[in-house]
Amino acid sequence: RRRPGRSIRDGEEETVFREVVSFSPDPLPVRYYDKDTTKPISFYLSSLEELLAWKPRLEDGFNVALEPLACRQPPLSSQRPRTLLCHDMMGGYLDDRFIQGSVVQTPYAFYHWQCIDVFVYFSHHTVTIPPVGWTNTAHRHGVCVLGTFITEWNEGGRLCEAFLAGDERSYQAVADRLVQITQFFRFDGWLINIENSLSLAAVGNMPPFLRYLTTQLHRQVPGGLVLWYDSVVQSGQLKWQDELNQHNRVFFDSCDGFFTNYNWREEHLERMLGQAGERRADVYVGVDVFARGNVVGGRFDTDKVGGGFRPRASGPVPPLGPHFLMDLPFPSAPQRNDSSCSSQSGDPVALRNRCPAPAKLCPP
C-alpha cells in the first residue's frame, strides 16, 4: 500500500503490520460452574487432599453467605430441648446447588424454620459445604447451619489413618482447614460422621482432634457447633449404639453435642438421661422419617415420636432431632412439601423425593 506523498519504486513492496487482539477465556472450573448451564453452583470437597489444598478463590465469593445469624429467643445455649433437622436428600447438591436460583416447579423446600434450632446439610462427600441458599435462609430465621465431615468404607479408613494415626500436626491441619472453611463461607460448624473402623492410634487421636476443632471453631465462629454422630466406639470399632453410653461418651465429652443413631428404643432414652447429666440438651436423638429398620415413629407417625421422650423419665428430656424430613403434599397444596410422599385423596401412594430450592424465601 502506498502512503500519501510517497511513491513505491519498481520491485518494492511496503509491509504493514497490524496487531490482532484476541481473548480466549480459561475453561470454567468444574467445581464452581454447572457444566450444562455455566451457572455458578455450590460445591463440596471429595478428599483429604482437596481439603488440605483448599484456599479461597475469586469464584468462592458466590458461595459466601450474606445473612448473619439472627438472634433467637431463648438462645441455643440455654438448657432447653432443641430440634435438629438433618437434610439428607438423594445425595445432596441437586437443584439447591444453583446459587442464583432454580427453575424447578416443585422443589424440595423447608418452611417451618421456627420449629428447629440446628440445620445440618448432609451428603456422602468427604467435606460437605452447605449450599449458600440454605445458610442464608436458615440464618434469617435464627437457625445455625452445619456442614458434614464424613468418612466411609475402606477409603474412609485410609483417610482417617492419614490424618489421625500420626502426630498432632496432622489432625490439627485438618481441623484448621475446616475452621477456615466455616469462617470463610459463614456457616456455623460441623457434624463429624466417621462410618468406618479406626486403628488404635487413630481412635486415640480422635478426642484430641474433636477438642482442638471445637476450641478453634469457638474462637473463630461465635456460636459455632461441633457435633459427633453415633458410629465409632472408643475401641475403634464401627458399632452404632443408638444411645450415649460409656462406649462413646469420650467423643461427646470432646465436642458440643452427640447425634444418636436412629434405631433406639425407650430404654435407650432412659439410660441416656443418666449418661448426659446436665448436658442432656446436647444429645440429639435421631429419627429416621423413612422408618428404615426397627425404629420408633417415622413416616406417618413421625409427629408422635416426641411423646416417647417422657415415658418414665423424670426431669428434663433429651431433644428430638429428625434424621430425615418428610412432609406430605396434598393436591390442594402441592408446593408445601419437603422430602415427600405422593398422595391421592390423602392416601399415600408411593415415596418419592423432591428437589431443594435454595432461593425460596421461607415465612417466619
Provide key terms for this protein.
364 residues; alpha/beta; TIM Barrel; nine-stranded mixed sheet; two-stranded parallel sheet; 13 strands; 22% helix; 16% strand; elongated; cytoplasm; TIM_ENGase; mannosyl-glycoprotein endo-beta-N-acetylglucosaminidase activity; ENGase; hydrolase
Question: What's the quick description here?
Answer:
This protein is of the alpha/beta class and 364 residues long. It is built from 7 helices and 13 strands. It has a single domain, classed as TIM Barrel (Alpha-Beta Barrel), CATH 3.20.20.
What does this structure look like?
This protein has 364 residues and is α/β, with parallel strands linked by helices. It has a single domain, classed as Alpha-Beta Barrel (TIM Barrel). The protein is 22% helix and 16% strand. It has helices at 48-53, 132-140, 153-164, 168-185, 200-220, 249-252, 266-276, and strands at 84-87, 107-108, 118-121, 127-128, 144-152, 189-195, 225-229, 257-259, 283-287, 320-322, 340-344, 347-352, 355-356. Helix 3 crosses helix 5 (200-220). The longest helix is centred in the middle third of the chain and has 21 residues, at 200-220. The chain is elongated. It starts with 47 loop residues before the first helix and ends in an 8-residue tail after the last strand.
Please tell me the overall pLDDT: 80
For the largest beta-sheet, the strand count, sense and barrel status come to: 9 strands, mixed
Distance between the ends: 74 Å
Report low-confidence residues grouped into runs of 5 or more: 307-364
